[in-house]
Specification:
about 0% strand, mainly alpha, 7 helices, single chain
Length: about 140
């Protein structure tokens, strides 16, 4: 006799009131998310009570930003995450350190660097990556 398979992740209607409140920015897309994403988000929601106010604000902001992305931007973000996961640990650590350094810069300096990067040719960007030892994109 075959046992019915357990549902891998609950639909929106099956979430508790508290889970729906925390995950509200994803309400319209929840049932379309892959089961592994739903389960990951539910694990984070379960830790909500243990989070600091800063961690809660970051998580909520991340959800709102994710929801505001176009499907193409979400795909690009997913591809970028896969590339990061495929990097050796020392490269990931270097990348995180550089990102943290960039995020500590004053907003006007970050914007100036962002604009400069966008104006560069692909060859100029690759040259900078090679000089800094960053993995290519």
């Amino acid at each position: 006799m075959m046992m019915p398979m357990a549902k891998p992740a609950p639909d929106w209607a099956e979430l508790t009131r508290a889970e729906r409140a925390i995950l509200a920015p994803l309400a319209e897309r929840w049932d379309d998310l892959p089961p592994h994403r739903r389960l990951h988000l539910l694990r984070v929601a379960d830790r909500w009570q243990d989070m600091t106010p800063e961690q809660r604000a970051r998580f909520s902001g991340d959800l709102r930003r994710l929801e505001s992305l176009s499907p193409d931007e979400r795909r690009q973000l997913h591809d970028q995450r896969r590339r990061m996961e495929a990097m050796p640990e020392h490269e990931r650590r270097l990348h995180r350190e550089r990102l943290e350094h960039f995020q500590r810069l004053p907003p006007d300096e970050r914007e100036r660097l962002r604009e400069r990067w966008l104006q560069m040719s692909p060859e100029e960007r690759q040259e900078i990556r090679e000089r800094s030892g960053s993995p290519g994109r």
